[in-house]
Design brief:
Blueprint (H helix, E strand, L loop, with lengths): L9 E2 L4 E2 L8 H8 L18 E4 L3 E7 L2 E6 L9 E5 L4 E4 L5 H10 L8 E5 L5 H4 L10 E5 H8 L6 H9 L1 H12 L5 H21 L9 E3 L2 E6 L2 E6 L11 E4 L4 E5 L14 H11 L6 E4 L9 H22 L4 H7 L19 H12 L4
Parallel strand pairs: 1-10, 2-11, 7-8, 8-9, 9-10, 14-15
Antiparallel strand pairs: 3-4, 4-5, 5-6, 6-7, 11-12, 12-13, 13-14
Helix pairs in contact: 6-7, 8-9, 9-11, 10-11
């Protein structure tokens, strides 16, 4: 695929008005659960939400409120994350552009099952590859909106390099080799068929990765940006650092919906690039918004606001225990084994004993040491 020409850059700050087999959700679930305690459960799909569901070729669209949809991958195309779809009077806003040009193009194509209105706006809630590596498919007249820090991270190459990228993507060639070796040993026909399907999915996704040209957003905000599209007000808020240094919440006050990216997910978010102590404070500002629905970066839409409280409690506990062990001179790996988060087992399934995700604890130690990116 040929990369689109570079878009003109526009920056806005303040409240100024101005887009078996390997299932599609598998990679997104792995990305999400990397921040969980061992055996964590993201509760994806546990809550239905919405009034109607439309099945297209690659995506399932659940209408959360009229004109606002949760887009979930529903085929063998790897999409990595959710997307939010806001169908306005004359155009469409897509929130998060997915993991590859193939996934982004599939979403745009499948939108025809909902509307013939053009995509005029897109947004990146943060810079992680599974939310931003579809940017290149949008033509120059589409505004791609993000926080300034998100644009900078993508421009600097951080969306396709570094620890988090290597953790989830760098291991793919090795996984393919391992699958190929295992396939040679299988004699059971059903097991071979299942592994062959998985292998084909990994090969296809790895081929799609070669097409990615990380493309920074062309419209940025520092704290707030507002769009007025027909009768709908769309607010973009930066309330502080959380999952990354540039998380943006998309808030639809008239619809009482927030689209959160990975600041909120179906379960425990990935924390390898997070600011765990600041995350708690940022969520407190999110809670001040007046909303009924949350469309998270991974997992199903939900209405239970107390789930934000549960995440805050978990983050505080993880932070406090990590700080204590760091102060005792314990290294990050040993600290991850010793931390006990079983008090949160009722809220985050899969926590059955002591232990925290080593990447999350390593990130906290980096923050404490002043070495975090």
């Amino acid at each position: 695929m040929t990369a689109r020409p570079q878009r003109p850059e526009r920056t806005r700050t303040g409240a100024i008005c101005r887009p078996g087999a390997i299932p599609a959700i598998m990679l997104g679930a792995a990305w999400l659960c990397a921040g969980c305690a061992p055996g964590g459960d993201d509760r994806s799909g546990a809550e239905g939400g919405g009034t109607s569901t439309t099945e297209a070729v690659h995506f399932e669209f659940t209408e959360v409120v009229p004109g606002v949809y949760h887009a979930r991958g529903a085929s063998d195309l790897v999409v990595g994350s959710n997307a939010g779809v806001v169908v306005n009077e004359a155009d469409v806003l897509l929130v998060d552009s997915h993991i590859s040009p193939a996934a982004a193009n599939a979403l745009i194509e499948d939108l025809r099952s909902l509307t013939d209105k053009p995509v005029r706006y897109a947004a990146n809630t943060h810079w992680h590859f599974d939310h931003a590596h579809g940017n290149q498919v949008y033509p120059p007249d589409v505004e791609i909106i993000s926080h300034e820090a998100t644009r900078a991270a993508i421009a600097e190459g951080r969306s396709n390099s570094g620890r988090s990228y290597e953790l989830f993507v760098g291991s793919i060639p090795g996984r393919i080799e391992q699958m190929e070796a295992t396939l040679d040993t299988l004699t059971d026909a059903a097991a071979r068929a299942e592994l062959e399907a998985q292998l084909e999915g990994q090969r296809t996704y790895y081929a799609q990765l070669q097409e990615v040209v990380p493309t920074p957003p062309n419209t940025t905000l520092s704290e707030r940006l507002t769009l007025y599209r027909g009768g709908r007000e769309i607010q973009f808020h930066f309330f502080g650092r959380a999952h990354t240094e540039g998380d943006v919440i998309v808030y639809l006050p008239g619809d009482r919906v927030i689209i959160s990216g990975d600041m909120l997910t179906g379960g425990l978010p990935y924390m390898g690039d997070g600011y765990v102590n600041e995350w708690v404070e940022t969520l407190e500002r999110v809670k001040a918004l007046d909303f009924d629905w949350i469309i998270p970066g991974h997992g199903a839409p939900y209405q239970e606001r107390e789930r934000i409280d549960h995440l805050q409690a978990y983050l505080l506990d993880l932070w406090d225990q990590s700080v204590a062990l760091h102060g005792q001179g314990v290294n990050a790996e040993d600290a991850a084994a010793r931390i006990d988060l079983t008090a949160h087992a009722a809220n985050f399934g899969g926590i059955s004993g002591p232990g925290a995700n080593p990447v999350a604890v390593l990130r906290i130690f980096e923050l404490l040491d002043g070495t975090a990116n």
